[in-house]
């Protein structure tokens, strides 16, 4: 790879470098996200030597805890949820004295002044140079309150030259376009856009980050990604879990379209199909994504019936149905599964369907992109085999991260019978180090100020605009009938019809 390209890519991904020393302030630190994802990610970054020296953690939440109790809770969380096991006790012994705790009521302005003072003390004690990453792992109901009070308390801007204040925000970024705009306005009142890091954790997954490299650092794939060669694209994010006993109330407001399609699936689609950015800079990549998202045509009220399928899991064996889950209404009409076909109004993709599907309580956990190519036009080998499938590029996000290329090959021997062959690349085999967790990648990037794998405000608004359009069409046409599918199945069979041709099928989960 030429030196210039390599530097650009390294600059864009910064992965493997040390983040600058800073204070990492985690709001909502006693919550689920902090226990499952954030604390283990910090520990694993320390373990792989990727935290600047010193990195200080200040946990913030409502409950009164002292530093010692807080450290014990965090160790429990890390022990339960870290992917690297067993826990390195010696590392924790050295690192844990730098984990501190501050109680704060989100709506108490005085608490923010106390927080500012505590940060000042920590900064002076550890010489972290006024560098602060504020991770807002709080629910959407209090997020705006926290942002507003951070501003009132003067915590939104650097206190000295060379310092920084960056803020990490978790989804959901609103429930629709108006609420997303309101949230963005609120963030804008306190922070400049380049201080805000909106997380879509799918972008921290290794094979998603690699999509840009696959397309733009290589010559063999990119020329094929257009309407001339591609028959259709399938994007799947299937999960085996249901509401896990705790997510019912959230899901009742969200549903699969808002929860998964608005964020993860549209991001995958944009990264796969957007035009090439002029440079591998965050700004240029965001520009391309926004342009792409705006080019997706929302199905009209007439098209929704043919192009969307809504499903909800029903009880099966031990698995409860969605309507039996905690926090879910007994006659809920919320979809836990959605499949839909989208078309893009641009020269590259006109007429090529993108089929998206996602669902809970399905037969397997599987996230992948499959680009299905058109068949060889001259039909030279038509007689050689009648079971041949089309060529496919398969980007596996989970499980077994990697890339497969399915092409036809000759069965060894004197005949000329063809069979599909799979050229298969697996991260697990190709690289010695295991892929880091998405949250490790994203945290390190946010600490370094690298925004490529985060979402910009207009990107979020463009995807809500599309989702709102789909919902409006749904409502105008009378919500597409909810199809009940048994938990543990592959979802509603009706999703097969989206592919439009009995010989085309979804790649199996
Ligand atoms: C979250 C959704 O953003 O992504 C969840 O809110 C979903 O509903 C999760 O379960 C899936 O993430 P992953 O990494 O397990 O595929």
Q: What is the CATH topology of the largest domain?
A: Dihydrodipicolinate Reductase, domain 2
Mean of the pLDDT scores? 92
Distance between the termini: 35 Å
- The value of Rg in angstroms is 24 Å
Q: Topology as H/E string?
A: HEHEHHEHEHEHEHEHHEHEEEEEEEHHHE
* Ligand set: 6-O-phosphono-beta-D-glucopyranose
Main pleated sheet = 10 strands, mixed
CATH superfamily of the largest domain: Dihydrodipicolinate Reductase, domain 2
**How many β-strand stretches?**
16
The CATH architecture of the largest domain is: 2-Layer Sandwich
- Count of discrete alpha- or pi-helical segments spanning 4 or more residues: 14
CATH class of the largest domain: Alpha Beta
Task: Tell me the helix content.
Answer: 25-40%
Overall outline:
globular
Q: How would you characterize the overall build of this protein?
A:
With 509 residues, the chain is of the alpha/beta class. The protein has two domains: 3-170, Rossmann fold, CATH 3.40.50.720; 204-374 and 455-499, Dihydrodipicolinate Reductase, domain 2 (2-Layer Sandwich), CATH 3.30.360.10. It contains 14 helices and 16 strands. The chain has helices at 3-13, 32-47, 67-81, 89-95, 109-126, 140-152, 177-190, 206-216, 248-273, 282-295, 301-307, 427-430, 438-448, 457-476, and strands at 23-27, 56-61, 99-103, 131-136, 164-169, 196-198, 230-238, 296-297, 308-314, 337-344, 354-359, 366-373, 392-398, 402-410, 418-426, 482-486. Strands 7, 8, 9, 10, 11, 12, 13, 14, 15 and 16 form a ten-stranded mixed beta sheet that branches. Strands 3-2-1-4-5-6 form a six-stranded parallel beta sheet, with helices on both faces. Helix 7 (177-190) runs antiparallel to helix 14 and helix 11 (301-307) packs across helix 14. The longest helix is centred in the middle third of the chain and has 26 residues, at 248-273. The chain is globular, with a radius of gyration of 24 Å. The two termini are 35 Å apart. Bound molecules: 6-O-phosphono-beta-D-glucopyranose.
């Amino acid at each position: 790879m030429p030196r210039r390209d390599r530097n650009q890519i390294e600059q864009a991904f910064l992965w493997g470098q040390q983040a600058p020393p800073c204070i990492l302030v985690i709001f909502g630190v006693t919550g689920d996200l902090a226990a499952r994802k954030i604390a283990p990610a910090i520990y694993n970054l320390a373990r792989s030597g990727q935290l600047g020296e010193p990195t200080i953690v200040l946990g913030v939440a409502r409950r009164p805890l002292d530093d010692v109790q807080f450290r014990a809770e965090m160790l429990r969380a890390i022990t339960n949820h870290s992917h690297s096991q067993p826990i390195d006790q010696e590392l924790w012994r050295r690192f844990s004295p730098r984990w501190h705790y501050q109680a704060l009521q989100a709506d108490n302005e005085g608490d923010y002044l106390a927080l500012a003072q505590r940060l000042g003390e920590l900064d002076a004690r550890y010489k972290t140079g006024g560098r602060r990453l504020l991770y807002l792992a709080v629910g959407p109901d209090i997020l705006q309150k926290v942002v507003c009070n951070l501003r009132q308390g003067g915590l939104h801007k650097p206190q000295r030259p060379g310092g920084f204040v960056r803020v990490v925000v978790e989804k959901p970024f609103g429930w629709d376009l108006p609420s997303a705009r309101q949230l963005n306005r609120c963030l804008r009142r306190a922070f400049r856009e380049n201080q805000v890091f909106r997380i879509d954790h799918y972008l921290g997954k290794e094979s998603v980050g690699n999509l840009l490299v696959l397309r733009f650092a290589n010559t063999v794939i990119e020329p094929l990604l257009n309407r001339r060669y591609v028959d259709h694209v399938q994007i799947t994010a299937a999960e085996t879990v249901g509401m896990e006993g705790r997510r019912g109330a959230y899901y009742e407001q969200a549903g699969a379209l808002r929860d998964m399609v608005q964020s993860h699936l549209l991001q995958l689609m944009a990264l796969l199909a957007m035009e090439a950015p002029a440079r591998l800079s965050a700004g240029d990549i965001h520009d391309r994504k926004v342009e792409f998202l705006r080019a997706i045509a929302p199905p009209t009220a007439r098209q929704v019936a043919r192009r969307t399928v809504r499903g909800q899991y029903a009880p099966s064996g031990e698995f409860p149905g969605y309507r039996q889950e905690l926090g879910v209404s007994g006659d809920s009409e919320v979809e836990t599964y959605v499949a839909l076909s989208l078309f893009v109004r641009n020269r590259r993709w006109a007429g090529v369907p993108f089929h998206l599907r996602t669902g809970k309580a399905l037969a397997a956990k599987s996230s992948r992109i499959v680009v299905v190519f058109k068949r060889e036009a001259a039909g030279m080998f038509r007689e050689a085999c009648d079971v041949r499938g089309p060529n496919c590029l398969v980007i596996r996000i989970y499980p077994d991260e990697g890339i497969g290329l399915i092409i036809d090959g000759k069965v060894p021997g004197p005949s000329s019978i063809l069979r599909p062959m799979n050229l298969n690349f697996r991260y697990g085999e190709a690289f010695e180090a295991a892929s880091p967790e998405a949250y490790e990648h994203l945290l390190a990037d946010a600490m370094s100020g690298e925004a490529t794998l985060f979402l910009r405000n207009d990107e979020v608004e463009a995807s809500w605009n599309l989702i709102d359009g789909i919902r409006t069409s749904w409502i105008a046409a009378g919500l597409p009938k909810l199809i009940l599918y048994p938990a543990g199945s592959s979802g509603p069979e009706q999703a097969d019809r989206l592919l439009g041709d009995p010989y085309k099928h979804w790649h199996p989960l």
